[in-house]
Amino acid sequence: MFRKILIANRGEVALRVIRACKEMGIRTVAVYSEADANSLHVKFADEDVCIGPAPSSESYLNIPRIMSAAEITDADAIHPGYGFLAENADFAELCSSCKIKFIGPAPQVIARMGDKAEAKKTMREAGVPCVSGSLDIVTDVAEARKIAAEIGYPIIIKAVAGGGGRGMRIAHTPIALSTAFVTAQAEAEKSFGNPGVYIEKYIEDPKHIEIQVLGDEHGNVIHLGERDCSIQRRHQKLIEECPCSSLDESSRANLGEIAVRAASAVGYTNAGTIEFLFDRRSGGFYFMEMNTRIQVEHPVTEVVTLVDIVKQQILIAAGEPLQMKQSDIRFVGHGIECRINAENPYQNFRPSPGKIVTYHAPGGNGVRVDSHCYEEYVIPPYYDSMLAKLITRASTRDECIRRMERALGEFIIEGISTTIPFHLEVMRSEEFKHGTFGTGFVDTFWK
Ligand code: ADP
Ligand code: ADP
Ligand code: MG
Fold first, then answer.
1. Count of domains in the chain?
2. pLDDT beyond 90 at 94
3. pLDDT computed for residue 447 by the predictor
4. What is the pTM of this model?
5. For position 167, what pLDDT does the model report?
6. Same domain, 211 and 197
C-alpha cells in the first residue's frame, strides 16, 4: 500500500481524497496556488507545497511544479481528482516514468477515451450502441452538411477534446450548420487547443444516464449502477441521483452489462464513468462518452451502494484485486446530490465570487456535505464555482426529496449568491417529483 499520496487538485475533491487517505492510514500532501493558501485542503493535509500563482496554468495545470512537489515530499502516488490534469495522458505517462503511481487508468486508455470521436469508434467496434453521427473528425462544412443530411437535423457539433459541457453547438438547418460548424471549430481550438470536432444526431430532451464502473489491474470489471444526471444547465450537471426512477431492473442490468463490456474492451482499470443518452421517445440507450476519472457526483452512488469509490481507486492503483463481485453489489434506498455553486440563479447563473460572511451547513440523518467552505472564506475567481455538494440519502425517492428540501432550508451561506434557491424550487416541483424530466428541464422550468 502507498505510504504517501499527493493530491494534484484543490477544493472539495482534494478534501474528499484526503479524508479517504486518513481513514486508510496514508499520509497526504496538498499542493496549492497562492490564491488557495487559506484553503481547507491545505489545513487538513499532513504536508503542503505551494506550487505557484493563482492562474491554473501556473499552478494546478503546471506539470513540472507538481512533479517537483511529489519528488520533494517523496510521495509514492498522485491522485488527480477531477478537472485539471485528471484526464491528461501525458501527465499519467510522466508519473509512470518517474515511478510515481498515477491513481487512474493507463495513459493509453486515457488518451483513447479522451478523444471523444476515437472513443465512439472504439465503443462501436465493441458492439456498444452509439449516438449516430460522423465516424471521425469532420474537417469542413461540405462534409458536415453531407453527414447532417444523412442522419437528419437537428445535429450537434462537439469538440473531440471537449469537457465540462463546453465546445458544443446545435444546428437545426443546413444554413445554421455552416455558421455553427466554423464557430465550434474556433471555440474548440481556443478552449482545448485542438480544433477537431465531430457530429452527432441531436436527441431532443433525452435523459443523461451514466454507469459507474470499477476495474482492477487483474482483469476484473464491475459496475455500481447508474446515475440520472439530466438536470443540467448549459450542458453542465446541477442535480444527480441514484437510482434513475425511470429505469426498470432489466434495463438497469442490461445497461450495466453494456458498460462492463465497454470497459473490458479497452482494458479499463480504476474508477470510470460511461455516459449514455436515453432517447425517451425510442427507448434506446446510446453511448456518449467515457470519463476516465472520479466524477463530481460519485457520492450518490456511494450512499446507495455503501462502496467508497475513492478508497477503491486507491486500492486498485496499489495493485489490490477487487474485493467484491458484481453479485455483492446491492442498491439500497435513494441518493440525490445538489451542486451548490457560487452563482446567481436569478441572473442566468452568473458567477458570484467573493467572501462568505455566514456559513452554516445542514446535518441530521441521511445528510452529507462535501465542501471546502467555511465562514470568512474568500472564493477565488480563478477556478470553478462549486462551493459544496449536498447529498441526501433515504429509503425512498420521495423521502430523499423531502430530506433534500429540509437540508437546503438549513444551508445558510451569506455574502455571495448561491444556487440554493434554485435547488429548493426544483425539489418542490411536481415535474421533478414525477421523475419524468429530461435534459431540457431547466430551460423550461427556470425561465
Ligand atoms: P462530472 O462529469 O464529473 O460531473 P463535469 O463534467 O461537471 O464533471 O466536470 C468536472 C470538472 O472538470 C469541472 O470542474 C469541469 O469544469 C472540469 N472539466 C471536465 N472536463 C474538462 C476539460 N476537458 N477541460 C477543462 N475542464 C474540464
Ligand atoms: P462533456 O464532455 O462536456 O461532459 P458530453 O458529451 O458528456 O460532454 O455532453 C454533455 C451534455 O450535453 C450531455 O449530458 C447532454 O445533455 C448534452 N448532449 C451531448 N450530446 C448530445 C446529443 N447528441 N444529443 C442531445 N444532447 C447531447
Ligand atoms: Mg460528459
1. 3
2. yes
3. 87
4. 0.97
5. 86
6. no
- Decide: helix, strand or coil at residue 234: coil
Residue 303 is predicted with a pLDDT of: 98
Whether 20 and 314 have beta carbons less than 8 Å apart is answered as yes
Q: Is 33 in the pocket of ligand 1 (CB under 6 A)?
A: no
CATH number at residue 382: 3.30.470.20
Residues that are catalytic: 293
According to DSSP, the β-strands at 77-79 and 197-201 are: unpaired
For residues 264-286, average pLDDT? 96
Residue 124 lies in a domain: no
Q: What is the CATH number of the domain that holds 139?
A: 3.30.1490.20
- Do 71 and 22 belong to one domain? yes
The pLDDT of 283-287, averaged and rounded, is 95
pLDDT of residue 237: 98
To the nearest whole number, what is the mean pLDDT of the chain? 97
Q: Which of 50, 82, 103 corresponds to the end of one domain?
A: 103
Range of the domain at 274: 207-445
163 CB within 6 A, ligand 1: yes
Distance CA 267, CA 232 (A): 31
Closest-CA residue, ligand 2 atom 22, reads 202
Nearest residue to 350 via CA among 230, 186, 234: 234
Contact 60, 33 (CB under 8 A): yes
Pocket of ligand 2 from Cβ distances under 6 Å? 131, 156, 158, 162-165, 168, 200-203, 206, 208, 232, 235, 275, 277, 288-289, 439
Beta carbons within 10 angstroms of residue 404's beta carbon: 28
Can you say how many angstroms the Cα of residue 280 is from the centroid of all Cα atoms in its chain?
Answer: 23
The CA 48 to ligand 3 mean position distance, Å, reads 32
> In 3-state terms, what secondary structure has residue 124?
helix
